[in-house]
Amino acid sequence: MARPGAGAAVPVIGSDRLMSLDYTRGIAVMGILFANIIGMGQPYSAYAWPGGFLSPHDGLADGLWVAQFVLIDGKMRGLFTLLFGAGLVLFTDRARAKGGWVALALLRLFWLLVFGLLHYYLLWRGDILTLYALCGAIALVAVNWSWPQQLAAGLVAYLAGVVWNTVQIAPLWAANETVRGQLPEYAGVAEATEALIASDRADALREAAIAKNGTWLDHVVHVATVHRWEWVDQFVYYASEALPLMLIGMALYRMGLFDGRLDRRTQALWGWAGVFVGILLTLPLGLWVYFGGFTYTGTLLAQLGPMGLTRLPMILGLAALLGLSGSNPAGWFSSRVIAAGRAAFTNYVGTSLVMLLVFQGWALGLFGVLSREQLYLIAIAGCILMLLWSKPWLRRYRFGPLEWLWRCLTYRRLFALRR
């Protein structure tokens, strides 16, 4: 294979990487699987709403929903988004020295968008790569800002997004679950909500029928027809979270959160404080949904509204603590987490492929069958698989398979894969 010429921009390999970023990314990609497994093994609406399950959801499962709500939901995605912002700065800083960094960064994001669309239509419609590609292109405007500017802009935009989303969803909840629903301006809202739930359930039954008796092509056709523009809707909604978190991730990287420039004791204190405050704020919200009976609009409001605010301290706290752990890793587990993080792109898409085999009828056919507890066991198995394959592969090869392909497409040259 041809090697890049002298002076050319080249991808980061080996000792040039920041282990703390890879370690944190490894934890995040495994945590994301625990969140996504619900929407992979059950109808997509079950991701947030227990009522979307095709199998029974009660007792222990209800308590586990609260645990996931407090510890996982939005936190792993937020952590992954922070890292994407940090990675944008790291990439552009290295590319800028060679010139033409803007075009190179946009080309890199273009190919990420292509990968994301393929992932969405062919494997799983919970894809996040399209969101990252589009928001990343916007975030490039801020890569040269100072870290105080990036942090301030990110925090203000994030809080504004939380307020906006809450204001949009709260009337729907009020119309269905309070006496305000009897006011004239809310006429028909409850009926419209029931129609929406019925539509989701009908789609869930179609997905279950395809998963049981259909083929992979039937799965693709269903997504391409019924949900063909849903990724655009997801971008419109989640950009208010993703773009600000990318800016915050840029700021944290500039501040030295991932390379040991911050005082370790101070960083640890901030980290534990963030995690503690995040749990303290999110738990009452989860219990409110639990004791409210997991209503559709109550769950929706909690997930897409105020939880955006309560989880932010925990996202930042986890970033601080994992940045510390990854900067001085030791032991079997840490080395394998770092390897999983270095191959996070492959692991993220690869788990979608593996779970397609687990849940579709032309393979194991477990879609809509497993309980929440059993789905978590599948997620644990998926994480073990990530830890088992990533390190041996990277011992022999320079990049994960999709990382290598992405780099070759970005730099428009064929890099050596074998060590």
Record keyword descriptors for this entry.
419 residues; mainly alpha; 17 helices; 72% helix; disordered N terminus; membrane; Bact_Transport_Assoc
For the biggest sheet, the summary is: none
- Compute the number of helices: 17
Give the tally of β-strands. 0
Order of secondary-structure elements = HHHHHHHHHHHHHHHHH
Distance between the termini: 12 Å
> Roughly what fraction of the amino acids lie in strands?
under 5%
- Tell me the structural class: mainly alpha
- Mean pLDDT, nearest integer? 91
- What are the segments in which pLDDT stays under 50 over at least 5 consecutive residues? 1-16
How many distinct domains?
Answer: 1
Rounded radius of gyration (Å)? 22 Å
Q: Can you give the helix content as a percent range?
A: over 70%
Q: What form results from the Cα inertia axes?
A: globular
Write up this protein.
The chain is an all-alpha fold and 419 residues long. It has one domain. It has helices at residues 19-41, 60-71, 75-96, 101-122, 129-139, 147-177, 189-213, 216-226, 230-255, 264-291, 296-304, 307-310, 312-327, 332-342, 344-359, 372-396, 401-411. Helix 1 packs across helix 13 (312-327). The protein is globular, with a radius of gyration of 22 Å. It holds the Pfam family DUF418. This is DUF418 domain-containing protein. Residues 252-412 form the DUF418 domain. The chain crosses the membrane at residues 27-45, 65-89, 101-122, 128-147, 154-174, 235-257, 269-291, 311-333, 345-369, 375-394.
